[in-house]
Amino acid sequence: MPDIIKEGYISLKEEGLRAWIWSKRYCVLRDQSLTFHRNEAGQCIGLLFLKEIGSVTRVDLKPYCFEITAKDKTYFIACKSDEELYSWMDEIYNRSSVGTSGPTNFVHKVHVGFDPITGAFTGLPDQWTRLLKGSAITAEDAAKNPQAVLDVLEFYAEQTKREEEEYGTSELQGAVERMSGLNWAKYMQEEKSPIPTVKLPPKMVPTRPAPPPPHASVSTSSTSSDKKSKDQVLQNSPKSNVSDNYTLPSRDRHDVPIPSGKITQDTPLDQLLESKLHLDKKIPNNDHNKYNHHQKDAIDMERERERERILREREREKAAAQVSSKKKVEQRISTMTEAQIMEKLRSVVSKGDPNDCYKKVKRVGQGASGSVFVAVSLATNTKVAVKQMDLSTQPRKELIVNEILVMKESQHPNIVNYLDSFLVGNNDLWVVMEYMEGGALTDVIDNNSTMTEQQIATVCLETIHGLHHLHSQNIIHRDIKSDNILLNSQGHVKISDFGFCAKLTDQKRKRATMIGTPYWMAPEVVKQKEYGAKVDIWSLGIMAIEMIENEPPYLDEEPLKALYLIATNGTPTLRHPERLSTELKSFLAVCLCVDVRSRANSAELLNHEFLKKAGPLEILAPLLKFRAKQT
C-alpha cells in the first residue's frame, strides 16, 4: 500500500445523486490517488486518481472550500481553516497532472437519476418501476434518501433474478424451501394436530402474518394519497428497453463486454472501467455544469460501483494468490458438476437401509422437497426427526450437501444435531436429526404474552453459545431468527436450519451475497456491502426485540419499505425502552450497532452483564405450557 501523504476529516459534496448533500468523510491522499471513507477505519467508498484531475480551485460555496474537477465528476471539499484548505490544495495540485487529460466520452444504456425538484426517479428499469409503485415507499422517502431507495430496489431485484435463474420462479417469498431442503423448525414439535399438507415455511418472510410483497399495482388498501405520492415518484420515469431480469441500475449483463482474463494488480483501473461501460453520450469537460447533475448521475454511480467492485476483486485475487502458494484449495461445492455433487453426497451418508435403524411413526409435514416424519431409533428407542427427500426434484442438490456437511462438522449442545443420513438408490435421501418437541421460539413468542428478562437472557445466552461455536469454525449462519431457534420440553435451546449458512475461507474472509430474511437483516447486507460473522449478532439483537415486543421491527411494513427503513434508520427503536433494564438496553446496543467494527462479537457477548441474568434451562419450560393445551 502506498504511503499516506495526508489524511483527515473533511466535508464532501459530489455531483450526481448526492449533489445537494454535504457529507462528513475521512479523506486519504496518496501519491497517485485520493480516497474517501465514512470514517477513519472504514472501507473506501470513493476513489479519485490524481491523473484524472483537470483543475483544483478555491470556491465560495463554504468559507474554506475548494473544487476538484475531474474527467467525469466535480468534487467540493470544505475544510475548517485557511491553513487546512491550502495544505490540501497544494498537496493535491502538486501531484496531479492538471490539463493533461482530455474529456472522456460515455454512452449509457440506462440513465438512472433522481430529480430533487420534481421528486421523481428517471430511467428506472421497468422491473424497478413496478416494484417501487407497488411498495409503500413514498415520494417523501425517495426525496429524503434516494440512494437508499435505489439500494433496496437493486437488492430486491437482484435477489429475485437470482431465484429466477436458479429455481425457475420469481416468487421471492417462496425461496426458502427450495434453498434449504432441510427446514425443520415447522415440524419440530409433538404430532398433536392433523397432518398438514402444506409447503414448508418460507425464509424470506416470517411465518407469522406479514404484509404481502410489492406487486405490479398498488394494493387496494392503499390510500389515495399514498397512490398519489407513488405516482409522483414515477411520473417522469421513462420506460426502459431493458428486460425485467435487469438487476443493476446502470450495467447491462448481456450487452456489456466483460474483459477476458483475470483482473490483476497491474491492470489500470480506468482501463477496466472503460471495458465495462458502453459510450453513447458525450460529456465534454468544458461543458461541465456543477449544478446540472441529471446528465451525469448514472455515469457517476456506475464508475463508483465499478471502482469498488474492482478494488474488492483485487483484494480477493491477492488473498487467493497468497493462500494458493501455501496449500491446494478444496473445490467449492457450488462449482461442482451434478455427478461430483452426488459422489460427494455418497461419501458422507451411511451405508445400508435406514428402515433397519429407524421406524417412522407419523408424518408431520410435507412440501415440494419431501416429507418430515417423527421416527423412533430402534437402537435407543428415542424419538428422532427424519426428512425424506426425492433428490430428482431438487434443483440445487449442492445446498443439501452443504447443509449436511456443516451439520456434521457442527456438533454442539446448542445446535440441533445431525444424527445420520442415508441414500437409498439414487434419489431417496434420508436425513436424521435430533428431535425438538418444543418447536420453534416463534411459537413460544406467539403463545406467551410476555417473557421475563431472565428468560430472554437465557435464550440469548444459549443461542450465543451455539453462534460462538459456529463462528469459531468460520461459519456464518446468516438466518438467525426465532423461526430457527428450537426448544425441547426441558428448555434446551438449539440453533437449526443451516440452508443459508456460509463457510468463510482464507480466500473469502468476507461475503457479499444477499441471503437471509429481510426483517432480520443487518444494514451492511441490505446495502450489499461485504460482511462477516457479525451479521448473526445483528440478527440476534432483532430476535431479542422479538422476545421483548412479540415481533421484529418493521414487521408491519411490506418488504421493500422494511428494507428501506433498515438501510436508512440503522438501529431500530424500541416501543417502550423505559420498561427495560439498563443491562438489556446495553445488550441491544452492542448487538444492533450499525458500525460493524463497534458491534460485539460472540466471544464479547458471552461476558456481557445482561447474560449474567440468565437462569437454569428449567425456567423456559413454563413457556411451553401452551403445547399441552393443543392435545
Question: Secondary-structure blueprint of this entry?
Answer:
Layout: E1 4-14, E2 23-30, E3 33-37, E4 44-49, E5 53-59, E6 65-70, E7 74-78, H1 82-95, E8 113-115, E9 120-122, H2 126-133, H3 139-144, H4 146-167, H5 175-179, H6 224-234, H7 269-276, H8 297-324, H9 338-348, E10 358-367, E11 370-377, E12 383-390, H10 397-409, E13 418-424, E14 428-434, H11 441-446, H12 453-472, E15 475-476, E16 485-487, E17 493-495, E18 502-503, H13 523-526, H14 534-549, H15 559-569, H16 582-591, H17 602-605, H18 625-629
Mean pLDDT: 73
Strand runs, count: 18
CA(first)-CA(last) distance: 66 Å
CATH topology of the domain at 441-629: Transferase(Phosphotransferase), domain 1
CATH domain class name of the domain at 441-629: Mainly Alpha
Name the CATH homologous superfamily of the domain at 441-629. Answer: Transferase(Phosphotransferase) domain 1
Task: List low-confidence stretches.
Answer: 99-110, 166-181, 189-295, 323-330, 500-516
Number of helices: 18
CATH architecture of the domain at 441-629: Orthogonal Bundle
Strand portion: 15-25%
Structural class from helices and strands?
A: alpha+beta
User: What is the topology, as strand order, of the major beta sheet?
Assistant: 4-3-2-1-7-6-5
Q: Sheet bearing the most strands, described?
A: 7 strands, antiparallel
Overall form? elongated
Cα radius of gyration in angstroms: 27 Å
Work out the helicity level: 25-40%
Overview of this protein structure:
This protein has helices at residues 82-95, 126-133, 139-144, 146-167, 175-179, 224-234, 269-276, 297-324, 338-348, 397-409, 441-446, 453-472, 523-526, 534-549, 559-569, 582-591, 602-605, 625-629; strands at 4-14, 23-30, 33-37, 44-49, 53-59, 65-70, 74-78, 113-115, 120-122, 358-367, 370-377, 383-390, 418-424, 428-434, 475-476, 485-487, 493-495, 502-503. It is an alpha+beta fold and 631 residues long. Among the domains are: 4-106, PH-domain like (Roll); 335-434, 2-Layer Sandwich (Phosphorylase Kinase, domain 1), CATH 3.30.200; 441-629, Transferase(Phosphotransferase) domain 1 (Transferase(Phosphotransferase), domain 1), CATH 1.10.510. Strands 4-3-2-1-7-6-5 form a seven-stranded antiparallel beta sheet. Strands 10-11-12-14-13 form a five-stranded antiparallel beta sheet. Strands 8-9 form a two-stranded antiparallel sheet. Residues 99-110, 166-181, 189-295, 323-330 and 500-516 have low confidence and may be disordered. InterPro entries: CRIB_dom, CRIB_dom_sf, Kinase-like_dom_sf, PAK3-like, PAK_BD, PH-like_dom_sf, PH_domain, Prot_kinase_dom. Its EC number is 2.7.11.1. ATP binds at residue 387.
